[in-house]
Amino acid sequence: MSDNALTDRPQVTGPPSAGPSLARRRLPRWTPALVVLVSVGLGVGGGSLAGWESRVQQGLIAALLSVIVTYALTSLVEDSRQARDKVATSVVWVCFAAAVVPLVSLAWTTVSRGAELLDGYFLSHSMGGMTNIEEGGGVYHAFLGTVEQVGLATLMAAPVGLLTAVYLVEYGRGRLAQAVTFFVDVMTGIPSIVAGLFVLAFWNLGLGFGPSGFAGSMALAILMMPVVVRSTEEMLKLVPNELREASLALGVPKWRTVLKVVLPTSMGGIATGVMLAVARIAGETAPVMLLVFGNPLINPNPFSGAQESLPLYVWNQYKLGNAASIDRAWAGALTLIAFVMLLNLLARGIARWKAPKGAGR
Questions:
Q1: What gap in Å lies between CA 104 and CA 90, rounded to an integer?
Q2: What is the pLDDT of residues 222-265, one digit of tens each?
Q3: In whole angstroms, how large is the CA radius of gyration of the chain?
Q4: Helix/strand/coil for 299
Q5: What are the pLDDT digits (tens) for 146-196?
Q6: Are 347 and 271 in contact (CB under 8 A)?
Q7: Are 289 and 279 in contact (CB under 8 A)?
Q8: How far is CA 290 from CA 110, 195, 226, 267, 304, in A?
Q9: Which segments of the chain belong to CATH 1.10.3720.10?
Q10: In the CATH hierarchy, which fold is given to the domain comprising 140-354?
Q11: Largest Cα–Cα distance of the chain, in whole Å?
Q12: C-alpha dihedral (334, 336, 341, 343), degrees to nearest 10
């Protein structure tokens, strides 16, 4: 075939064939923002006229209106397929707002109310020698108790949870592994009050020990273990099998492969999981009420005598109901949030420091 065979073919001329047009009408980019603003205005105004003064009710009206208006506009300007797509996108954004708005509101309220009293004096003094209705006092005794109780619980739960996860991922086979997995799943859903009752029956009533921070730590450790196991198990499963096979091919024993290859590779995720478990138990109140009892004085010994903790301090102060105690409760809540945030930042720093070289690239 000659090189000019294609060019020698007669060219077909005539009007272009009628086909689907590529140019479609589109709504402007600023349409979603305008729809949201109009829906919020209508929701607030319509809710006020209907006597619904609650912001939650007005927000629900605005969300429903935004979805309806988005569907109507897109159907008129574009087509039904794009309208369904826009509605699905609007529903996702509404669900996102429904999750974020309460969180932001809670954080803002806690910071604005707690920052009024949170200062050096509040962090360095206890409630010893003070009445509950007078202003003053601090949170030092509760902060010290929380640090000791959470620290002891972490020392008990983190190694057990880590070793359990290593067994399930690296060694566990057969009925024993299935039984361990089943009991970990059961422990994940245990209410905190049940863990407190178990320690109360075993440690206090059975063995005769009195209230102490250590008793509360044991209940917190029970709540912490399944979280550590599950998070560590998932992180270990993410380690590529090629790393294990390469280490084993060099003649390295399996225990050393786990210790030197698998655990360092997943250390960042493990540390994050432990911190999530710490955040899980740091705000628990029921086990502390049963086992620690609370103490307005400073008790640095977690193995003897009643202690205070931040969640129990917040509960006791808010329960009193007067202005001074409610202010102390908000400041204690802000202290607890700041404590958990600092622990998470510390865990991220340790994970980045201990991560293998080049893992973050």
A1: 20
A2: 999 999 999 999 999 989 999 899 998 998 999 999 998 899 88
A3: 30
A4: coil
A5: 999 999 999 999 999 999 999 999 998 889 999 999 999 989 888 999 999
A6: yes
A7: no
A8: 26, 10, 22, 35, 15
A9: 140-354
A10: MetI-like fold (1.10.3720)
A11: 107
A12: 160
